[in-house]
TrEMBL record:
It comes from the Eukaryota. It is a multi-pass membrane protein. Belongs to the ABC transporter superfamily. ABCG family. Eye pigment precursor importer (TC 3.A.1.204) subfamily. This is ATP binding cassette subfamily G member 5. Residues 197-409 form the ABC-2 type transporter transmembrane domain. One of its GO terms (cellular component) is ATP-binding cassette (ABC) transporter complex. InterPro entries: ABC2_TM (IPR013525), ABC_transporter-like_ATP-bd (IPR003439), ABCG_transporters (IPR050352), P-loop_NTPase (IPR027417). Residues 2-130 form the ABC transporter domain. The chain crosses the membrane at residues 215-236, 251-272, 293-319, 331-352, 364-381, 453-471. Pfam families: ABC2_membrane, ABC_tran.
Length: 481
């Protein structure tokens, strides 16, 4: 059967409507019958599938892996042997068995051909067991004879009817039949929410683990920046005339402002293809968009921890920050939170903003504004106008910078040249102890140390919740397009 029409005439919209992908639309007219039984709108998704125009597949997975994860998401309480047989049968049906172990590929690295990608997308839909009435199943001789006979009956009935009027008459006759065949709904044994999260996490990790260069960059991107900073600073001094305060303030400023940027870059580079796939597969009812989001967050957390640990270990001990293991642990925890917040903030924007360039620009702008308003290192918060002072409490940079300043300066003692310094030189020796700098720049920060630390980490679950809401909103936005 073919659906013909000019571009924009509604062919795809019709398919979206019948397959239940436009469930938020209310202005539908017409009826859908299967085997003479009328379907309710909420039942469309449970019965129909169709392959969209664009292929949305993870580039680094093999054909077999891609279909296996789809089968796992569609089936519950099925043995691995059953899943394998199901996938192997679909591979054989679509002549994909010979490329089962080849990666999908992309424009930048070679994989399977365009036609093979198309057949993989078809195979992913067939794994959900949709309304198959007009094709011959060649997986076994018995099924081939049965389905071939059925197709011949359909063809014969169609040939003996007039193209339009007799079809309508046949439909009306079927609707009046007393004993109607059942509606062939899709399988209802989909996995639990936790199982879907676990499957999605495994699939994401399996896909990205094959990008060796990408893994290396994710682990060492913060270190590369740390090498530049360490080479520029060399070693922190304790003499005020040699930049003891200025160098430490500059380093803290960089440690607060730079890690969120690497998190933003990761989210834009890695999550965009996952977002495209979740848009597609969520329409098929395999899972919800927010579940892909949570799976990605669980995936990137270990990489963030390792990357920031490498950076923190190098920069802390190389430039000579306060030599104490517990303070190093606090430094690492603050930089880690800042890095993760940057990635989560970008994920929030990716939920409601389609254009990745706008997302990246927006995330950079928000981070830059937070650095200016929240750190108090460009201008002390006490000297800021009241509106900016109020806004500073909404920035994670306020809490991270206060914690790092107290963590580094508390307990430090400074020198200021030699005993024979001139009056002009001595006038530059404002501080003799680090706590004096803390009280001048961040009054009361010493007593707020624990509170600031907890407030900083409160941003993490807060942004995760906002990101989930953002992708719930994305469901509504996409359904209305």
């Amino acid at each position: 059967m073919g659906i013909l029409g000019n571009s924009g005439s509604g062919k795809t919209t019709l398919l979206d409507a019948v397959s239940g992908r436009l469930e938020h639309k209310d202005n539908f007219f017409g009826e859908v019958y299967v085997n003479g039984r009328q379907l309710k709108k909420e039942q469309f998704k449970d019965c129909f599938s169709y392959v969209p125009q664009n292929d949305t597949l993870l580039n680094f997975l093999t054909v077999q892996e891609s279909l296996t994860y789809t089968a796992l998401l569609a089936r519950q309480k099925c043995s691995s042997n059953f899943i394998k047989k199901k996938v192997d049968a679909v591979l054989a049906e679509l002549s994909l068995s010979h490329i089962a172990d080849k990666i999908i590929g992309s424009r930048t690295f070679v994989g399977i051909s365009g036609g093979e990608r198309r057949r993989v997308s078809i195979a992913a839909q067939l794994l959900q067991d949709p309304m198959d009435l007009t094709s011959v199943d060649t997986r076994s001789k018995e099924r081939e004879l049965e389905t071939y006979s059925r197709v011949q009956i359909i063809v014969s009935a169609y040939k003996n009817s007039e193209i339009f009027s007799k079809v309508l008459a046949a439909i009306e006759r079927t609707k009046c039949t007393k004993e109607l065949p059942p509606i062939p709904f899709k399988s209802k044994d989909s996995p639990s929410t936790f199982s879907k999260l676990w499957i999605l996490l495994r699939r994401i990790t399996r896909n990205f683990s094959k990008d060796k260069m990408g893994i290396i960059m994710r682990l060492f991107q913060n270190l590369l920046y740390g090498l530049f900073v360490a080479f520029f600073l060399l070693r922190l001094k304790s003499d005020l005339l040699k930049g003891a305060v200025q160098d430490r303030v500059g380093l803290i400023y960089q440690c607060v402002s730079a890690p969120p940027y690497t998190g933003m870059l990761n989210a834009v580079a890695l999550f965009l293809p996952l977002r495209a796939i979740s848009d597609q597969e969520s329409k098929d009812g395999l899972y919800q968009k927010w579940q892909m989001l949570i799976a990605y967050i669980l995936h990137f957390l270990p990489f963030s921890i390792i990357s920031v640990a490498i950076f923190s270990t190098f920069i802390y001990w190389t430039v000579g920050l306060y030599p104490d293991a517990s303070r190093f642990g606090c430094f690492f925890a603050v930089v880690l939170a800042s890095h993760i917040v940057g990635e989560l903030l970008t994920l929030v924007l990716l939920g409601v903003v389609q254009n990745p360039n706008i997302v990246q620009s927006g995330a950079v702008l928000l981070n830059s504004a937070g650095v200016v308003v929240g750190t108090g290192l460009l201008r002390t918060i006490e000297e800021m106008p009241t509106p900016f002072k109020m806004l500073s409490y909404l920035t994670f940079q306020k809490y991270s910078s206060e914690v790092l300043v107290v963590n580094e300066f508390y307990g430090l003692n400074f020198t200021c040249g030699g005993p024979n310094n001139s009056t002009a030189v001595s006038s530059a020796c404002v501080f003799s102890r680090g706590v004096q700098f803390i009280e001048k720049t961040f009054p009361g920060a010493t007593s707020r140390f624990t509170t600031d630390f907890l407030m900083l980490y409160a941003f993490l679950p807060g942004l995760v919740i906002i990101a989930i809401v953002s992708f719930k909103i994305r469901d509504i936005i996409i359904s209305r397009q």
